[in-house]
Amino acid sequence: MMMVSALDTAKRGLSRASIDRLVAAALLLAPAAAVGQDISVPRLDPKAPIVLIGHRGASGYRPEHTLASYDLAIDQGVDFIEPDLVLTKDKVFVARHENDITGTTDVASHPEFAARKTTKVIDGETHTGWFTEDFTLAELKTLRAKERLPSLRPASAKYDGQFTIPTLDEVIALAKRRTKETHRTIGIYPETKHPSYFASIGLPMDEALVAQLKKAGWSKPTDPVFIQSFEVNNLKHIHSLTGIRLIQLMGAEGGPADKAAPSYAAMATPAGLKQIARYAYGIGPGLDMIQNGDAPPSVLVRDAHAAGLRLHPWTFRAENVFLIPSFRAGAAPAAHGRLSDEIQLYLRLGIDGFFTDFPDIGAAARAAAQK
Ligand code: G3P
Ligand code: CA
């Protein structure tokens, strides 16, 4: 579980020293056993393409959620780019992993915004920093993105200060322009972040997102869009508003912030999956819900497929600290291990698509698996 803790901590943008300590602990405590049972399971639609999703773009190589990151992901072969979505004070969707922009922008070095620093409780957790909902889009556009994990990704951190925060409109325009240029269909895979919280402060997301996607020409299951959420009720609501395919996200621990189910564990049972299949096309489970370290794989792929749900798990990352022990190379936390082999293991376990920070490795793994 230390790997999961390090990952979660990194996501929350704690200090470099804190991340480094957790990364070191994870590597010390992780078992070095051989990988567990390796079985081949068919995908739900074996003839359909495996869906390759650039997680926050190509975030292993560029600061996440920037047009440069999405553009590189497209260059590296993804089918979909993934914007996590939050709202500004003037109700514009922008791409950030969380509304707290302290860890992924240079906002702290802008004296004109110093007084905006505040403390909020979001989904039951206390956060101190700067928040998108307290800024207009024009104000946010004066900030520049920075790498979330500079100690793990120093090459990406060299791009700090170069890129702005993109709007959803800009992400859509990029996908459409690159679709024309590449003669491939480049889709978008937006995630609503903290939808209940945003609704509680007068910034509801569901109708606005559906309307914006409709304006872009996307409202049907065949359109190149998936909408994802860790919450349940907003996905059910969105299901009533559009035909776009929906993905129910879940993690190994905890449950949805809207309390629509007691836990993700309950949602991942055959009965829970049957309920999800009423409104969603598939699930996006954490990788460890399918294979936790070197333990034998779970039955989640089998049970989800039995309910008619595809699986698009998250998130494949190349650094040792994020890999299953058997796929690590050496002991340095930031060194890259055998990510392609790890992805191919999960593909043999029957996943139907996947999120990765390293789309070039993901594309190569997909190609190898399809030989
Ligand atoms: O949306 C799939 C994956 O991105 C979920 O995790 O926290 O990286 O948005 P997160
Ligand atoms: Ca996401």
What does the secondary structure layout of this molecule look like, with pairings?
Layout: H1 2-11, H2 16-29, E1 51-55, H3 67-75, E2 80-82, E3 84-87, E4 93-95, E5 118-122, E6 125-129, H4 137-140, H5 154-157, H6 168-182, E7 187-188, E8 191-192, H7 195-200, H8 206-215, E9 226-229, H9 233-239, E10 245-250, H10 264-267, H11 270-276, E11 282-285, H12 300-306, E12 310-311, H13 339-348, E13 353-356, H14 359-369
Parallel strand pairs: 1-2, 1-13, 2-7, 3-8, 9-10, 10-11, 11-12
Antiparallel strand pairs: 3-4, 5-6
Question: Which terms would index this structure?
Answer:
alpha/beta, TIM Barrel, four-stranded parallel β-sheet, disordered N terminus, binds SN-glycerol-3-phosphate, binds calcium ion
In brief, what are we looking at here?
The protein is 32% helix and 13% strand. The chain has helices at 2-11, 16-29, 67-75, 137-140, 154-157, 168-182, 195-200, 206-215, 233-239, 264-267, 270-276, 300-306, 339-348, 359-369, and strands spanning 51-55, 80-82, 84-87, 93-95, 118-122, 125-129, 187-188, 191-192, 226-229, 245-250, 282-285, 310-311, 353-356.
What can you tell me about this protein's structure?
The longest helix is centred in the middle third of the chain and has 15 residues, at 168-182. Helices cover 32% and strands 13% of the residues. The protein is globular and about 55 Å long. The chain has one domain (4-37, 45-98, 166-369): TIM Barrel, CATH 3.20.20.190. It starts with a helix and ends with a helix. Helix 12 links the parallel strand 11 (282-285) and strand 12. By secondary structure, the protein is α/β, with parallel strands linked by helices. The protein has helices spanning 2-11, 16-29, 67-75, 137-140, 154-157, 168-182, 195-200, 206-215, 233-239, 264-267, 270-276, 300-306, 339-348, 359-369, and strands spanning 51-55, 80-82, 84-87, 93-95, 118-122, 125-129, 187-188, 191-192, 226-229, 245-250, 282-285, 310-311, 353-356. Strands 7-2-1-13 form a 4-stranded parallel beta sheet, with helices on one face. It has a 4-stranded parallel beta sheet with strand order 9-10-11-12, covered by helices on one side. A 3-stranded mixed beta sheet has the order 4-3-8, with helices on one face. The protein binds SN-glycerol-3-phosphate and calcium ion. Residues 82, 84, 191 line the site of calcium ion.
